[in-house]
Amino acid sequence: MKNARSLLENPHFIGISRGQHGSIKLDARMTLQHVDILFQLIAFLFAISVHESAHAWTANRRGDPTARMLGRVTLNPIKHIDPVGTVLLPLIAMLTHFPVIGWAKPTPVDPRNFKHPVLDDVLTSVAGPVSNFIVATGATIILAGVAVAAPEGRMIIRGALSGFAYGNSALVPLTLLLYQVLVINVLLAVFNLIPIPPLDGSHVLRHFLSEGVRQVYDTMGIFGLMALVFFGGNFLMALIRPVLVLYTSILLAI
C-alpha cells in the first residue's frame, strides 16, 4: 500500500471520498485494507487447497490411494486446514504486513504403495509447488488479458500491482484478487521447494543422503523450519523476489 498522501493526491483511486466543504474521508481507505486482507485469505486458502490436492492426486496416480480415500483430492479448504499453519500464522502475517507464509495439514502418503518408491515420492512432493506455479501462471494470463482488452486495463493492472484500486470498473476487485492469487501461489511454491523437512523440497534431497544422515536430517528439520519462518525473512524474500519479478515484469511489459 502506498502512503496516505499518494492516495489523497490521486482522485481516481476508489476508497477516497470527499465530505462537506471538500474534506477528505479516510474511512474507505481502511475498508480497502480490510478487503485486501480478505483477498489474501481467500487466495491463501485456495493456494493450499490446490497444493495439497495436487499431492493427493499425484500420490493416487502413482499407486497410493491413502489421501484420496481420506477425501484430500478436493479444493474444499476445510479438508486441508492446520490450526497453526493455515489459520494462526497467516493471520499474524497479514496483520503485520509480512509475506503470507504458512502450511496446510500434511497430505498422508504411504510410500509402500508406490511402484517406484524414490521416483514416485519425488513426483508426489513436487506436484504441490508445480500446481501453485500453474495457478500463478493462469492468474498472470488473465491479468494480461484484462490489461489488453479492458478500457484503462493497463492502469487497472498497474494499480493492482501497486496495491491500489484504480477507477470504478467492476474489474478492479477481480484484478486485486487475481494479483493476490498470483503472489501467494508464488510464495507457497518457492517456500515449499526449500529443502528443509518437512517441506516438499526435502523429499528430493533426502533420497541422496545415507540412512544415518537422513534420520538426523528428518529429525532436526522442524527446528530449521521454525528458524526459517521466524528469523529467515530476508532469506525468504531473496528467494521469492526474483520469481515474483519475473511474473510482474510480464504484466508491466504489456
Quick take:
The chain is an all-alpha fold and 254 residues long.
Describe this entry's structure for a reader.
This protein has 254 residues and is mainly alpha-helical. The chain has one domain. The protein has 10 helices and 2 strands. It has a two-stranded antiparallel ribbon. The longest helix is centred in the N-terminal third of the chain and has 35 residues, at 27-61. The model is unreliable at 1-30 (pLDDT under 50).
Mean pLDDT: 84
- Spans of at least 5 consecutive residues whose pLDDT stays below 50 are 1-30
Number of domains: 1
How many angstroms does the end-to-end distance come to? 22 Å
Q: What is the N-to-C order of secondary-structure elements (H for helix, E for strand)?
A: HEEHHHHHHHHH
Secondary structure tally, helices:
10
**Shape, principal axes of CA atoms:** globular
Q: What gyration radius follows from the Cα positions, in whole Å?
A: 21 Å
* Biggest sheet overview: 2 strands, antiparallel
Strand order of the largest sheet: 1-2
> What fraction strand?
under 5%
Q: How helical, in percent, are the residues?
A: 55-70%
> Count of DSSP E strands?
2
Structural class category: mainly alpha
